[in-house]
Each structure stands twice: as structure tokens, then as C-alpha cells.
Amino acid sequence: MTRWKPTTCMRCAVGCGQLQRGTDTGYGVGDVQGDHRHPTAEGLSCERGIRETKDPRGEWLTEPLVRRGDELVPTTWDIALGTVSAELLKATADDPDSVAVLGSGQQTNEAAYALGKVARGAIGTQYFDANTTLCMASAVTAYYRAFGSDAPPCTYDDIPEAETHVVWGANPAVAHPVLYRWILDSAADAGSRLVVIDPVESETSADADRHVQPEPGTDLVLARAVLAQVIEDGAVDREFVDEYTEGFDRLVESLPDVDTAAETAGVARATVEELAAAFDARTLLYWGMGINQSTHGTDAAQMLLNLCLTTGNVGPGTGPFSLTGQANSMGTRVCSSKGTWPGHRDFTDADNRERVAEAWGVPVDTLPSSTGKGPVGIVDEINRGHVDVCWTVATNPVAGMPNATNVERALDDVFLVVQDAFRSETVECADVVLPAATWGETEGTVMNMERRISRVTAVSDVVDTVRQDLDIIAAIGNRLVPGLFDDPPLDPEGVFDEIRDLTAGTPADVSGVTYDRLEAERAVRWPAPDETTEGGYRYHDDGSWSFPTDSGLAHFLPASYRGVPEPTDPTYPLLLITGRRAGAYNTGVRNDDDTVPNARIHPETAGQYIDVVDRGQTVVESRRGSVTVTLTPDDSIPTGAIWLDIHNPVVNELTLPAVDPDSNEPNFKQCAVRLSLPDQSSPVTRDGVVRSDTIGDD
């Protein structure tokens, strides 16, 4: 095998360092292990990250494909790129917003930046987004509203210092095993504890000192109740609130009666009192998709920030810590021009627009004035006939977005370009397929959830008919705007230098990070404005606080509860809850997981539906689709609910495309469903069109 080479795991956003080496013959990664020199995990790694890096089980894309009738057939790169460029030029000439581009948290910083440069600077479309909006947008929006900037203030260094660890709407034992080990180690210290808030009993709640199970969809209600209890108990950090925040009195006036809110959330008043008391100690508050993926996601995340600010749990060893799923979700936000210009430059600020246009060598009028409507909004625009061409990169919206059948139908109606490393449900809809390199074949950088930048490296070549993401994007960009990039193949280091230059002086300053520095230090946390410093706990310096808001103060903001967007009723009496299971992630393209989903249901609830179970299988139906499942009684699931693995590629046949009004993040977590016999499930219609292609009809 080749020599060991340091890299970063691309499985989740913990950002563990790995050592990898290529195979002796052919292509691919031959072996992977943890890197003890990497400062993030110091040699720790999870089995899933090792396995999916070394031996992904998906079907690799090995040559460009073009649609001929009903088939995708092999073609040349010249024909593929020429076809794509011709369609983009034609659409852009009519209206830049007739093109949609969807990126991914699986891209490197360099590829994400290049894709944004093409989407915003060459095409000029507002309809550019990434699948990171499907998981982190609500947390990001809450951070901006409270602190004036994206990303958690705390770092992994704070985990050992915390005395109380509150995990709300997340299952890090499954989703982030290495980070979870640090949480467990800290919670095991004398006087420390782990509190889990989740409607479902999970691998994480099994380790908890206290597990609180609110009614599904009521996290915002419970958080408001806890905050009201904190205030009633007199546990407010008045010095911090008075000196470094604003809006507290307005927040207090908006809070509910504790007893009423507790009843709505389905918990006892004593439980609310216990949760409020938990914040008396140094507390780290972690949350995940159970908070974010909701029509109340931003408000719920904001209320968690309010809890930390009110109790003075903002500072070393404490604070709000959103748990990120995709490996480079943060890098996509910092670099890609998705919601801000590089470095978190405000999108509408005239000086920022001039600066970006000058750096890219494009007219400032080319840049769109709006960041767009999010991935669900892009699908809506396709259905309205406003989008003619869609280009997806390292993402699988046909399986990963809510109401997946509607997404598939929409993408069938446009000229679809799919750039990916593996065959997916979205590939099957494509008009042109561009095969891209993947882990172990790509050079670049990524950012983990605590803001650390580190390298990803290549230990294997690719076959001649596969190209780097960065080179594919640049080739298309240069056909749209000659000279937008150097001629491919590009040097990723040169692209990273562009990112460094554009982020200098911004809240997400990475100008002091170089490839040479990353080779020496393995990872560097931003902001890093020079080559000797790196970021620590944000907004805090020598006991003083300053937030990048207009006033320099952190903001309290109130919120009200509006109920779940699709409550159960006599026709659809069960509540679907989605979650993660061990061994699976994203839409499973690296796992080749096409098995029948396993639905977990409380034995008491299962007993009420025994007449619609046939040999252990039933059909779960929502107003959008139906899916055949294997039914497993499990008393860890609340009564009246059914749990499905969000990573199975058919589960989003069922989920609801309602979005948070502030973040555009979809409500994946709750929708109304019913059960029926596999051969008797009724056709589900949308806009009068009978849907007949569900798993349940196979």
C-alpha cells in the first residue's frame, strides 16, 4: 500500500482526523485509522466513519451519462459538458432565475466556493442553495438573531469543563459517537450529569441521569416553560443580562404560565422545575434535528439561546452548541455564497457586493439581490414553471427532501444535471450525469462544527472518466464566463487562497490559515486573522463580551407556539417521528441501503392495528405517499406514534414540505399517518393526480 497520509473524516461534522493509504493495485482507499496528531479527536474515530471511508457499498459512477429516451447511456466529457453549458447559457439568457443549483455539505470548501461563484457570479440566480438548509438553517438563523453571527460560540474544549450536559432533540450516541464519548466522560465526573430531552427513548437517553419525554413537536413550549420557571425561581444572571444583552423585559412579558405550558408539553410541573434547576451549574446545551427540523425550528433554537443567556451559561465551559450532521455544513455556509457572501458577509450590503464582484471579475449587477427560498422553495418554483434547468452537486434531493415523490416529479420536468460520485435516486431522473471523485480521491479543506478547518487529501487516483468536483464546476463556469477560473485541473490551494482573501476582516476570517499551516498543525479554528492565532470561545475576551450586532449586545427574542403543521385526526390518527439509526447517514448512497424500512411502534399502539399487519409488514400512509414497512413493537416509542429511519431513501415519500418561515428548513420530524394492509393501501393523490408508484404498490 501507499504511505499513510493525514486527512479528515467526511462522515459527520465532528471532524475527526484520519490517516489513510491507498491500495497496492487499482484505485481506492486501502486502509484508514485515527490520526493521533490531529487536535480534534487525537486518534479517536468511529466504526462508521472508518467503514464508509474505506469500503463504501454504493454503486460508483464511473463515466459521464446522457439521457437518450428512457435510458442513461455513456458519453464523452466534451459532449456532457457541452450539453450542460448549452442548456445553462440558453436558460440564463432568458432569465438567470430559470436556473436552480443545489450544493452540499459533502463538498470541500474549495468546491463549495467555486459552485457559489458559478451560481451567483456566472449564472446570477437567486435559486442557489445546499442540503445544509435541510438540517442547520434554523440553528443558523437563531444564532444570527441572538448573536449577530453564525456558528456556535463554544468549542470541544468546553465539554470537559461543563457540569451539566443537556442534550435536547438529538441522539449523539448514534449521530456523533466520538463527540458523545467526550460528553459521557465529562458527565461521569463527580457532581456532573447528563440530561436528555427527547420524546423517544434513544441510545443517548439510556445513559442519561434524567430523561424527559415531551409530547412530539412541543419542544418550543417546553423551552418557554423552563425559561419562565428560571425567572420565577430568581435564577437569572442579572449582571450578564443587564450589561451584555437587550430585549429581556420583552421576553419575560411574552412567557406563558408554567403550569399551562407544562400541560401542553405533556410533562409535570415538577419536571419543568427540575430542568430549570439544571441550568444552575455550568451547562452546555446541545441540540439537533429534533429542534431544527420543525416549522418552529428557529424559534425553538432561539429559546434555547435565551435559556443560556438568561442563566449566564455563555462563556468557557458553558453555552449553546448545535450539533451538525454533514461533514462540511459549516464550510458550505462560510464559503459558498449560499446565505451570505464568503466570510459571512451580509448578502445585501452594497460594499460587500462590490467586493465580491470585483474579486470574481463579474458585473455587480449579475449578483442576485435575494438569497432565494431554500430547497423546498426551489421545488415549488419548478412546479410553478419558473425553473427550466436544475444542477445538483453531491446531493440526493429525490430521497433527501420532504414529499419526495413531488420532488421527483418536479425534477422530471426540468433539464436535470446531476454531479455525484454514486448512483442515487436523483441520478435516475437526470438528463446528464457528471461522475465526480469522492473521499480519498480529493484534495481540499473542510470545517467541522466547532469551526476547525482541516485538510482532506487524496491517496488514490481516479479512473480517466471521473473528474474532481472542483474541475467539473470550473469547466462549466468557464464556458459560461470565459476566464472565471484558471483552466482545469485547478490547484485547490489557489482556490483556498481566494477564500482567504475574501474572508479577511470578516466574522469568519480564515485569512491566517494556509495549506502549509494545516500541514503543520493539522487543524485551525476560525476566526484566524493571522498565521499565529486561532479562534477560541467567541464574543468573549478577558471577562468582557462583545457581539457582532448593531448594539454590540446579545438579543433576547420572544416566540409563540402555533402547534404542529399537520396534527393527527380520525383519518390519519398516528404521528410519524423520524430519527437516525446507527450505521446509516444522509440518504444512504454510500450504504446501498434499499431494504424495507423498519418502523418502530409502541406495543400498545401496535395492538390496535394488528388487523392491518401481514406477516410482520404493514403500509404507512400520509397525505403524500405510502411506504411498506416492517413493524417492530418497541416500548421506547411514545404511544400513538410511529418511528422511521430518516436515512432510508423511501421514508421521505411521507414527510411534510412545510417549512420554518424564518429559515426555510423543512418540518421532517412530525406528520400525520395511518396504517393499512400492504395490498389494500389507498391511492394517495396530490392536486388530483393519483400517485401509483409507491413502495406499497410494488
UniProtKB/TrEMBL annotation:
Gene Ontology cellular component terms for the protein in this record: membrane
Entry keyword annotation includes Acyltransferase: no
SUPFAM superfamilies the UniProt entry points to: ADC-like, Formate dehydrogenase/DMSO reductase, domains 1-3
Domain Molybdopterin dinucleotide-binding: 574-672
Gene3D superfamilies, sorted: 2.40.40.20, 3.40.50.740, ADC-like domains (2.20.25.90), Dimethylsulfoxide Reductase, domain 2 (3.40.228.10)
Domain of life of the native organism: Archaea
Domain 4Fe-4S Mo/W bis-MGD-type: 3-49
GO terms assigned for molecular function: 4 iron, 4 sulfur cluster binding; metal ion binding; molybdopterin cofactor binding; oxidoreductase activity
Domain Molybdopterin oxidoreductase: 61-478
Keywords: 4Fe-4S, Iron, Iron-sulfur, Metal-binding, Oxidoreductase
Region Disordered, residue ranges: 679-698
NCBIfam families: Nitr_red_NasA_Halo
Name used for this protein in its record: Nitrate reductase
Organism: Halorientalis pallida
